[in-house]
Amino acid sequence: MGGTEIYVDALSKSLQTMGVQTIIVKPGFDKSTIREFIYGNQRVIEYPQSSFTDKDLITGDTLPSGLPYFKQVLEQERPDIIHFHEISGSNGITIAHYEVAKSLQIPIFTTLHLAGYVCKTGMLLYKNKKVCDGMIKTYKCAVCSLYNRGVHSGLAEIAVATSMLLPQNNITKEILPGSLAGLLSYPKYINDHRKTLQYIFNESEKVFVLSHWFKEVLLRNTLPETKMILLEKALPHELPTFRSESRPSKESQQVRLIYLGRISKIKGLHLLLEALNTIKCTHWQLDIYGQAGEESYEQYCKKLAQKNETKIFFKNVLQPTEVLNTLRQYDALVCPTVIEEMVGFVVMEAFAAGVPVIGSDSKGIAEQVRNGIDGFLFKSGSAIALAEVLQKIVEDPSTLGNLKKNILAPQSFEIVTKQVYCTYNVALEKMSRAV
C-alpha cells in the first residue's frame, strides 16, 4: 500500500520485461523459517526476523536476529546485484545487511525514498515549524529530535549542550539513570545517523535519487555527486489512456474535491478541514480516502468535519488499482501535506487521471505542480492560504476547467527502468574489466 512498496513492485515488474530476473527479499516478522511465495508473478522471499525491538537494536548496538537467514538467502541465490530500497534503524533492513552483501562481494545499489535518510525526524521541519535546509548539524538536529519527542525546547537545548561537553562514549549510559542518559544520547544518535548516510554512499556503486530538491540536500551535506543518479519522475502504474477534459462550468455547479492519503497530521488533512470551515460558498463536496495513522488524530479530523457533515465524507482505503478510476470522478485533488514530500506520487496519479492538484508548496509537490497552470500551490501549513484557493475555485468552477486543459500526462515508468537497467550494466561492466 505504501509508496515505496508500490515503487519497488513497479520497478521489479518493469525490469522483468527487459529480461532481468528479480527477487524481492523482505523480513518475515516472527516467522520461524525462510519461505517463498509468488506475488504478481514475482518471487518474494521472507526470512525469519523477530518483531521485538529495544534501544540497543535501534542504536545498532545489537544486530537483527534475522541477519544469518538473510545471509543464507544471498548465499543460495547469488544475485549479480543487490538493490536496497529501505534502511531502518531497528529490526528491518539495516546497515548490517549491507555488511553481509559486502562480505559476499555482491555489488550494492540504493534508492533513497524518504527524507529520513537526512532528517532524523523524517519531516525536515525544525521544531515542527520552520522548513529545514536539510544540513545535518549535531546540535540543531539533536535539539529538534528531542523536541519532536515531546521534550520542552529549553530542556532539549540544555540537554544537548551538556551532552556535547561530555565524552561521546558509554559513560553516561553506565553512570546515569536511563531517562537522563537517553536525553544526553541524542548528539550521538545524530552523528551515527550522519555516518549511516555516508556509509550508504561509500558502499553503494550508485545511489538513486528521486527528486531534484533532495539531490540538493544531499549535496549540501557534502555527499559525492558522482555517486548520485537522479531518476526521472514517472508514474509507477500502467498509464491509462490519457484524457484531460472539463465539465461544463456553471456558477451553481458543485465542485467535487478528493483527499487521498494517510489520515496523519503530517499529511495536513486538518488544514483542509479548517479551510473548508471558513469558506463562504456551499457548492462543494469533499471525499476522504485513507487509512488512519493515529486514532486520536482521526477523531480530531472527524470533529472538524462535523460543521460540514453533509458535505464531507470519510471513505474506504483504496487499493492501488482503484486509484486512477476513482480520481477521475473528481474535479480537484487536495494535497495539504506539511512536510517535504520526496516525490508525491499522488500528484502524478491525479495528472494521469486528468485532475488538477491543489497542493502545499512542499518541495516534492512544487516540483510537479505548475502554479496557476495545472494546479494551485499554497503556503505549507496555512489553512488561511488554502481557504483562499478553495474559495476561488468554488466561486468560479471554470477555473478548474482551464487548469485541466493544461495537464500533461506523466511519463511512463519505462523511462525509470531504463535508467536503472543502464546503471546496473555500466557498473557491472566496469567491475568485470577490473577483475
Your description of this structure?
The protein has 18 helices and 15 strands. The chain has 435 residues and is an alpha/beta fold. It folds into three domains: 186 residues, Rossmann fold (3-Layer(aba) Sandwich), CATH 3.40.50.2000; 59 residues, no CATH class; 151 residues, Glycogen Phosphorylase B (Rossmann fold, 3-Layer(aba) Sandwich). It has a six-stranded parallel sheet with strand order 12-11-10-13-14-15, with helices on both faces. A four-stranded parallel sheet has the order 4-5-8-9, sandwiched between helices. Strands 1-3-2 form a three-stranded mixed sheet. The model has no long low-confidence stretch (mean pLDDT 90).
Secondary structure elements and their pairing?
Layout: H1 3-16, E1 23-29, E2 35-39, E3 42-49, H2 55-58, H3 67-77, E4 82-84, H4 95-103, E5 108-112, E6 125-126, E7 130-131, H5 138-148, H6 153-163, H7 171-175, H8 178-183, H9 186-203, E8 206-209, H10 212-220, E9 228-230, E10 255-260, H11 269-276, E11 284-289, H12 295-305, E12 312-314, H13 323-327, E13 332-335, H14 345-352, E14 357-360, H15 363-366, E15 375-378, H16 383-395, H17 398-405, H18 414-434
Parallel strand pairs: 1-3, 4-5, 5-8, 8-9, 10-11, 10-13, 11-12, 13-14, 14-15
Antiparallel strand pairs: 2-3, 6-7
| Shape label | globular
Which architecture of the largest domain per CATH? 3-Layer(aba) Sandwich
Strand content: 15-25%
What is the residue-mean pLDDT, rounded to a whole number? 90
Strand order of the largest sheet: 12-11-10-13-14-15
Uncertain segments are: none
CATH topology of the largest domain: Rossmann fold
Query: Gyration radius, to the nearest Å?
Result: 23 Å
- What CATH first level of the largest domain would be assigned? Alpha Beta
CATH superfamily of the largest domain: Glycogen Phosphorylase B
Q: Count the E strands.
A: 15
Query: Termini distance?
Result: 42 Å
Largest sheet: 6 strands, parallel
Share of helical residues:
40-55%
